[in-house]
Amino acid sequence: MNDIILPLIIGVIAMIVGFIIAKILEKNKASDIVKSAKKRAASIAKQADKDADSLKKDKMLQAKEKFLELKAEHERVILNRDKKISESEKRAREKESKVTSELAKAKNLTLGLESKKKDYDERLSFLDKRQTEIDKMHRRQVEQLEVISSLSADDAKAQLMETIKDEAKTDAMAYIQNSLEEAKLTAQQEAKKVIINTIQRIGTEEAVENCVSVFNLESDDVKGRIIGREGRNIRAIEAATGVEIIVDDTPDAIILSCFDSVRREIARLSLHKLVTDGRIHPARIEEIVKKTKKQIEEEIKEVGKRTVIDLGIHGLHPELIKTVGRMKFRSSYGQNLLQHSREVSKLCGVMASELGLNPKLAKRAGLLHDIGKVPETETELPHALFGMQLAEKHGEKPDVCNAIGAHHDEIEMNNLLSPIIQVCDAISGARPGARRQVLDSYIQRLKDLEEVAFGFKGVNKAYAIQAGRELRVMVESEKVSDEKASELSFNISQKIQTEMTYPGQVKVTVIRETRAVNIAK
Asked: Is 80 exceeded by the pLDDT of residue 143?
């Protein structure tokens, strides 16, 4: 037991002695660190004092330099101020001397004016006396003249005035007559010059409308598919479009005949789609025709927009733009209406520029002058008055509306734009090859044929085909029976016979069709 405890006690004592020795060493080391820190602090403080002294000296030198600069600047400012004050005093002395001299002159002038005024008053009094004497002499002379002529002064004055008036009237009438004759001669020469220059500057194209279109085919085999079994396809196309389809011996082509170019274009595009697609049957035909009609309506809008942009006309109402587009598919005396209106618009713009008028307004009126020829609904008004109403409805200016309404003298012209439109319309229609009266009367006869059919109840569609030799009438099966269809055909033929003039014979065909449609779901 003692062998174990004794080494343990010795170890503990050794640890204690080691700890004490370590503490003593740390204390000595700390005292050395403190001493070295104090020495370093003393040296830093001494160096800081030196730096502070040098910084203080630098700042004092800078302050002295700044003071000297400010002092020099202050002295310069004071010198400039003194200089300005001396200059102001000098100017004031000069102005004072000028004012003194001006006052002396004004004083002298006042004295001179007073003397002149006195002299003027004396002369005025002298003139008054002379005027009084002259008036007395004038009255004595007038009295003597009245005694000699047996007339009073008022009567003599009246006679003299009448004589002068008569002479002035005679001279004025002669001058006016000469001026009018000269103006007429000059006006005729200028008008001819303006018209010739206008015509020469516009390049025209002959636009003659036809009533047939040729539809080219890849081969004659397609003709059989277009005709269909027992002719049902061709009948469906004719019923849907109102266009007569002529299939003859012409190789690789069929002919589309219709006086209405819109119908003819719808039929042409529909046939193109059907032939390209390959599926040709009545239901498909009706679907394609409906789509084509919508396409033509979009094309009409696009044509109107392009025309307005090409002519530089802005702010036109969308409905008028659509009306302008419809002109592409209308003709007037065989002349395409859109090309005619474009031509008139260009002529009006050039002529208005030559005469010093507004060319943009003239081009606008020229383009719209025949919009009454393409109404959406039938009207009894002349096309000029109807076009004027359309223009007024869509916010056109009064000058443009009057030019449209007066270009065929239906109303009175009230501005210089109206005769220009009338003249340019005549120029466009008068050139060789522009118009054909026969075609226009022929188209009107076909329209009248269709209108006769629409005058009966139950008629849904009516198409004049075969150059007016046949009228096909589609009736509603719910309103017209088979017996009434025969009676309707007879009544229409009798009305055509009694009310219309036409060459040859007109065949009236009434078609009544009953459809039963159901959908399998």
From this structure: no
The gap from C-alpha 288 to its chain's centroid, in whole angstroms, comes to 37
Q: Looking at the predicted structure, is the pLDDT value of residue 437 above 50?
A: no
> HEC string of 225-248?
HHHCHHHHHHHHHHHHHCCEEECC
d(CA 38, CA 116): 113
Average pLDDT over residues 436-463: 79
pTM: 0.48
CB 280 within 8 A of CB 236: no
Query: Per residue, what are the HEC states of 292-312?
Result: HHHHHHHHHHHHHHHHHHHHC
Q: What is the 3-state secondary structure of 91-155?
A: HHHHHHHHHHHHHHHHHHHHHHHHHHHHHHHHHHHHHHHHHHHHHHHHHHHHHHHHHHHCCCHHH
Please, are residues 473 and 453 in contact by the beta-carbon 8 Å criterion? Answer: yes
Tokens of 487: 């009676």
Report the C-alpha gap between 368 and 304 in whole angstroms. Answer: 11
Q: How many residues does the chain have?
A: 521
pLDDT for res 225: 82
Q: How many angstroms separate the CA atoms of 261 and 246, rounded?
A: 16
Beta strands 253-257 and 244-246, pairing class? antiparallel
Is the separation of the CB atoms in 207 and 330 below 8 Å?
no
* Amino acid in the structure at residue 339: Q
Token pair belonging to 352? 């208005």
The candidate with the shortest Cα–Cα distance to 507, out of 451, 452, 455, 464, is 464
With pLDDT > 90 as the criterion, what percentage of the chain qualifies? 1
Residue 351 pLDDT > 60: yes
Which residues are paired to 470 by β-bridges?
465, 507
The predicted model gives 226-240 an average pLDDT of 84
**Between residues 261 and 322, which one has the greater pLDDT?**
322
User: Per-residue pLDDT for 227 more than 50?
Assistant: yes
Helix (H, G, I), strand (E, B) or coil at 384: helix
Contact 268, 256 (CB under 8 A): yes
Tokens of 26: 């740390």
How does strand 507-512 pair with strand 470-475? parallel
SS3 assignment, position 160 = helix
pLDDT at 331 over 80: no
DSSP state of 306: H
Q: Please tell me what DSSP assigns to residue 406.
A: H
For 29, other C-beta atoms within 10 Å of its C-beta total: 10
- Using an 8 Å Cβ cutoff, are 425 and 369 in contact? yes
Residue whose tokens read 């503990």: 12
Q: C-alpha angle with apex 327: 326 to 328, nearest 5 degrees?
A: 90
Contact 274, 282 (CB under 8 A): no
Q: Over 50: is that where the pLDDT of 52 sits? A: yes
How many CB atoms are closer than 10 A to CB 195?
16
Quickly tell me which residue has 């017996």 as its tokens. 483
pLDDT in tens, 95-115: 888 888 888 888 887 887 888
pLDDT at residue 235, rounded to an integer:
86
In this prediction, residue 202 carries a pLDDT of 58
